[in-house]
Amino acid sequence: MTKRTSAKYKIDRRMGENIWGRPKSPVNRRDYGPGQHGQRRKGKMSDFGTQLRAKQKLKGYYGDLTEKQFRRIYGEAERVKGDTGENLIGLLERRLDAVVYRAKFVPTVFAARQFVNHGHVTVNGQRVNIPSFRVKEGDVIEVRDKSKQLAVVLEAVQLPERDVPDYLDADHNKMTATFVRAPGLSDVPYPVVMEPNLVVEFYAKN
Fold it and tell me: Could you tell me the fold of the domain covering 9-26+45-92+188-205?
């Protein structure tokens, strides 16, 4: 469980965007920042501020990862051949909690982390309770039999606000999802614009 779980909408308010596309987000009612000075007119943001915001938004989207976790994933993305920004998105989407969220087994990415932590998920038949576990192409993720009738699972499957992306093959009757391939930025159904290129610029300079 993260320190952000009980206050996840603070991230939305801070960013001024509904980053998960949730109908209950306070940004749907108030699109300004939190606190008594939130309504002040915003000045032009510096390049550093823009890059930092892009990093905080991406980091927050995946359950507000710690800086240490996020920096480690970025380091891996940098070492792999190809575009670092695209590699970063691919690695983040291969996290088990992200896959559980994308497959619509739970309603939020925070719930996905808790769901995995509590041992409700198997990968290729083996119980895995590490949210950062990295899935590979062809891996089959399944909700354990005793967990398939949990209210949180049954409600999440019915949510109309998001669809399962095509790099996952999900079967909600069996509560399984096969990880077909690592996605690129254009494949991921973010409700808001993510800019991993700015994250790359941020780490290049800092």
Answer: Ribosomal Protein S4 Delta 41; Chain A, domain 1 (1.10.1050)
